[in-house]
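Thread: Newbie trying to understand structure tokens

Hi all, I'm a second-year student working on a class project, and my supervisor (Dr. K.) asked me to get a predicted structure for one chain before our next meeting. I've only ever worked with sequences, so writing a 3D structure as a token string is new to me. If someone could post the tokens and maybe explain what I'm looking at, I'd be very grateful. Here's the chain:
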Amino acid sequence: MSTRELIRHADADALAQAVVARLVATVVQAQRERGIAHVVLTGGGIGTAVLVALGASPALRAIDWHRVHLWWGDERFVPEGDPDRNETGARAAFIDQLDIPAAQVHEMLGSDRISTAEESAAAYADALHEAGHGAIPAFDVLMLGIGPDAHVASLFPDHPAWHEQGDVVAVHDSPKPPPTRVSMSLGTLNAARSTWVLASGTGKQEAVRSSFDAQAQPMQVPASAVHGSEQTLFLVDEDAAAMLPADFGQREG
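---
Reply by user tm_fold:
Sure, no problem. This is what the structure looks like when written as tokens:
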């Protein structure tokens, strides 16, 4: 398990551009070392801003997209094309302009294509195991947003989904709409080599602060429980870091 690090950026725009640069460099290196790169995408405000910046960046073409598998850490159980879906925003931001095999864009099935969130979760777990030759792939990059309550993916504090068994779980009665979702479990999230938690804005201050609290408990502060095997970064802007000491972490940009 890697040590959790905080990297601060001046504002949301600087943060998004820095994450794009870091992502491109990491994927290119992964392809050089292992041939294929597995990347887990996220949504939310800063997550979407990163994907929009990636779509607009000339560096997008530095990646061989034929050798990338794209995944999502969670998804809303709503029909394909619904604006609430993380996949919908990601396709509009950058995926639709890529020459990437459709079979390597691993969306979570929505309510128009499968009957229940449980069936969607099981299908996604099967896709992960197939790609990982019987195991969860070691994701080269896993990006996560963080909620004001410190939730990550769709793992909310003290939610019953924590007790569900499986690599991918159904989430019902989410405290944040829409109420039905599908999420990677904590164990699956923690299969990543590099985990990046993205946070921007004053509304994320308490979540970021509590994630670095040595007394934080995973079920109360889910973001405190995620880690990559090689790297765990909290990539934040100064607004999101404001409740931490001014000299905590390192500054970039």
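A couple of things are worth pointing out once you decode it. DSSP finds six helices and ten strands in the chain. The chain has one domain: 4-143+155-206+228-234. Feel free to ask follow-ups in this thread.
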